[in-house]
């Protein structure tokens, strides 16, 4: 039962959130119900906090407007007396707003971390529960967990408009070897932006060219050139193409050098092989094992490249020392 003296959902949910976090992390509980419930509680609290912060901001604006009117009064005595009270009230309002923003930031951070770390919540239920135009970063994390990289990128790149986050997301996926076409996906979403994008056509195109320039080693250049719309100005592509061609030439030279080194190594190995194959060893009645100092005789022995022969058992013992 919630405390009736607590007015806002974020206040009412605080104890339950603390309990569930302890249950999940300290008790290692992996039940989907509790993980999903915790996310829903965070959503409720964050929405409530955002409304509260917006209300306080509106109140501050009204307060500042009233304060200006009062300070314009002609009576100096009234202005001085009321001015002191106004200062106290304004300071209290600023402090309250700062505290609410801190709680909001901490709650959002905890929610994002939980969504990243937990694999037990019901992703489909949460996606249905999210409002259409909020909790966008949270949606992107869940979509990523479901392997919906293109949908996640559309949110990050076009609804959040966060270039750095989009490229960091792609790099993370690339490093995990989960999707080798992830940078192609990013290029596609910039070249063919959704209607909901907050980016203009020119902004989106410039970002696509930036991806090509900065991450050319992560994409197939031939495939990229095929994707480019016909209306892309050639001048916009010159710098990117120069960068790509330079990297391709560097890769070609590196590959050529590696092939040459491999050829030299193969030649050296062949010579060594022929030398060893043509070598011979004579086991005589007076050939002794240098480890046990006994005659090799008819025992199985190991012959080393330097011509030293040992009993097989002695050779194993010698190699372990």
TrEMBL record:
GO terms for cellular component: cytoplasm; membrane. Residues 288-317 form the Vacuolar sorting protein 39/Transforming growth factor beta receptor-associated zinc finger domain. This is Vacuolar sorting protein 39/Transforming growth factor beta receptor-associated zinc finger domain-containing protein. GO terms for biological process: autophagy; endosomal vesicle fusion. Signal peptide: none annotated. InterPro entries: Vam6/VPS39/TRAP1 (IPR032914), VPS39/TGFA1_Znf (IPR019453). Transmembrane segments: none annotated.
């Amino acid at each position: 039962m919630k405390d009736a003296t607590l007015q806002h959902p974020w206040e009412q949910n605080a104890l339950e959130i603390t309990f569930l976090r302890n249950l999940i992390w300290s008790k290692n509980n992996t039940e989907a119900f509790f993980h999903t419930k915790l996310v829903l509680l965070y959503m409720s609290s964050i929405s409530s906090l955002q409304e509260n912060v917006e209300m306080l901001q509106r109140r501050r604006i009204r307060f500042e407007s009233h304060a200006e009117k009062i300070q314009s009064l002609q009576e100096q005595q009234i202005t001085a007396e009321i001015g002191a009270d106004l200062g106290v009230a304004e300071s209290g309002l600023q402090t309250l707003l700062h505290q609410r923003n801190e709680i909001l930031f901490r709650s959002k951070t905890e929610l994002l971390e939980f969504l990243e770390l937990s694999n037990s919540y019901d992703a489909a239920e949460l996606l249905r529960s999210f409002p259409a135009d909020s909790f966008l970063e949270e949606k992107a994390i869940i979509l990523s967990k479901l392997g919906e990289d293109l949908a996640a990128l559309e949110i990050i790149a076009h609804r959040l408009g966060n270039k750095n986050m989009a490229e960091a997301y792609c790099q993370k996926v690339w490093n995990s070897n989960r999707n080798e076409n992830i940078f192609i996906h990013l290029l596609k979403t910039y070249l063919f932006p959704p209607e909901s994008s907050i980016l203009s056509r020119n902004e989106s195109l410039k970002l696509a060219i930036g991806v090509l320039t900065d991450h050319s080693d992560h994409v197939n250049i031939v495939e990229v050139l095929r994707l480019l719309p016909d209306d892309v100005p050639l001048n916009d592509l010159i710098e990117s193409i120069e960068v790509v061609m330079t990297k391709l030439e560097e890769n070609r030279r590196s590959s050529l050098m590696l092939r040459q080194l491999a050829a030299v190594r193969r030649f050296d190995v062949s010579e060594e092989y022929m030398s060893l194959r043509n070598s011979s060893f004579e086991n005589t009645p007076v050939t002794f094992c240098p480890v046990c100092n006994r005659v090799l005789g008819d025992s199985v022995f190991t012959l080393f490249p330097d011509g030293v022969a040992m009993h097989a058992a002695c050779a194993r013992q010698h190699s372990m020392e």
